Amino acid sequence: MSTPEGLLLSGNTLFVSSNQGHSVGTYDATTGAAINASFITGVNGPYELALSGNHLFVATFAFGLSEYDATTGALLSQSFLAGQGGGIFGVALSGNHLFVSAEAAGIVGEYDATTGAAINASFATGLNSPVGLTVSGNNLFVAIAGGAGSVNEYDTTTATPINAGFFAGVSAPYALAVSGNSLFVAQEAGIGSVGKYDTTTGGAVNAGLITSDRQPTSLAVGVPEPGSAALLALGAGALVGWRRRRSVSAV
Q1: 13, 32, 74, 188: least CB-packed within 10 angstroms?
Q2: Would residue 81 count as lying in a domain?
Q3: pLDDT for 18 beyond 70
Q4: What's the whole-number mean pLDDT along residues 134-141?
Q5: pTM of the shown model
Q6: How far apart are CA 57 and CA 34, in angstroms?
Q7: Residue 250 is assigned to a structural domain of this protein
Q8: How far apart are CA 98 and CA 201, in angstroms?
Q9: How far is the C-alpha of 114 from the C-alpha of 26, rounded, in Å?
Q10: 184 domain-assigned
Q11: CA distance 165 to 153
Q12: Above 70 in pLDDT, residue 136?
């Protein structure tokens, strides 16, 4: 697979978005074997993924958030969100509420997962390159890649910042995943690493849980270790996708 930018687990099926491959593939989460490496093709710049029932949402550079049938891969809506164009990077679900990040615009918006209608298109604004998103209970975590780097935390019900820069000093965070009380943060700066943090205190459990000469681009939790060389299992049953440094061709 080429530049895995988004990972999503559904039962024993692992969905992987390939940014340079302009596609979304499906893989066996136990063996890593391809189920359908070309499950969805012709996607312009796919990033993070989210699943609501049988609806697969793909954040894209060109069309914002696109919606597909999670069983067949058929396109249901190229631009699902009302009034939202391209440049969507992160997507996360909380019940029937979709949260999306627009990196260039510095905004996180909230939308109805059934209709695509805006609930609060300016849920969080003025952010310095918001990228990866993840939800734990009523808390939304947002990776802020710009500036010194941080992970911000918001109440999903009230849109109130709980902790802006709660995980301050996280270097160029890119993707996020939650497992229980642990927040995994993929960090692109320096050597490239995945850190593990406490969601309650913000304290580092292991800031250098995994290090590599590649850039971690995507995270997912809750499956056995796959056989794919592009993925690496974490101790809590999490997966991370890697790419080579941007100056080197991805494999």
Answers
A1: 74
A2: yes
A3: yes
A4: 94
A5: 0.86
A6: 20
A7: no
A8: 26
A9: 24
A10: yes
A11: 8
A12: yes
Higher pLDDT, 43 or 190: 43
Single-letter code of the amino acid located at 200: T
Q: Tokens standing for 112?
A: 């109805």
Give pLDDT, residue 63. Answer: 85
Residue with tokens 């943090």: 197
Contact indicator for 163, 173 with CB cutoff of 8 Å: no
Kindly tell me if the per-residue pLDDT of 232 is higher than 60: no
Q: What are the Cα distances from residue 146, in Å, to 19, 45, 149, 151, 171? A: 21, 20, 6, 11, 9
| Domain assignment of residue 81, given as a range | 4-243
Around Cβ 128, how many Cβ atoms within 10 Å? 13
248 within some domain: no
The domain that holds 88 is classified in CATH as 2.130.10.10
Q: What is the rounded CA–CA span in Å between residue 8 and residue 152?
A: 22
Amino acid letter, 243: R
Q: Identify whether the C-beta of residue 247 lies closer than 8 Å to the C-beta of residue 222.
A: no
Structural domain count of the chain = 1
Beta strands across the sheet bearing 97-102: 88-94, 97-102, 107-112, 118-124
User: Model confidence at 241, in pLDDT bands (50, 70, 90)?
Assistant: low
**Looking at the predicted structure, is the pLDDT value of residue 205 above 80?**
yes
> How far is residue 239's CA from residue 144's CA, in Å, rounded to a whole number?
21
pLDDT value of position 249: 24
